[in-house]
């Protein structure tokens, strides 16, 4: 209920709420000692989740305004980024799976705690859908193709040198290729291994 405060010139201010639960009660006085203002935002909830689960909080900046990264959560099988969605009802997000925060939060012995087992199960049960945390083979395949093309260029140059200067040793051919731009700063012994294939 909203708290109303009345200020008087000659007396201390008084605070009260207007009761809307019963018809026989109107104003309920609130002593100044009981007035406390609590503030909570998404980042403070992230701090609570990280502390409750023993996670090191991440320094990753949020990719979406309503999705705040908490930290890397561990299950039995895998480790994934745990995030907090703050739009609407607060939910914990791991990959493509969501779990309402209200379902895993408990109040026991005067403290709020989280059901860590449920969150570990969530981490293990979902595969990541966030491309930032999904390994990609595209770059690896591109490097592999570039390396194969480099080896093919060495082999072609080796055959051309052998036609122009027959009778030289393979070491000499590899040293000549190492002096060209197609060597890409590789040494002659590396070139020799791959030019003969």
Task: Characterize the structure shown.
It is built from 6 helices and 9 strands. It has 197 residues and is α+β, with helices and mostly antiparallel strands. It folds into 3 domains: 4-34, no CATH class; 42-133, no CATH class; 138-195. A 4-stranded antiparallel beta sheet has the order 4-5-6-7. A 3-stranded antiparallel beta sheet has the order 1-2-3, with no helix packed on it.
- Give the CA-based shape: rod-shaped
**Mean pLDDT rating:** 84
Question: Which residue ranges are poorly predicted, with pLDDT under 50 across at least 5 consecutive positions?
Answer: none
Secondary-structure element order, N to C: EEEHEEEEHEEHHHH
Q: In percent, how helical is the residue content?
A: 25-40%
Count up the helices.
6
Note the gap between the termini. 82 Å
Percent of residues in beta strands? Answer: 15-25%
Structural class: alpha+beta
Radius of gyration: 34 Å
Q: Mind describing the biggest β-sheet? A: 4 strands, antiparallel
Number of domains: 3
Strand order of the largest sheet: 4-5-6-7
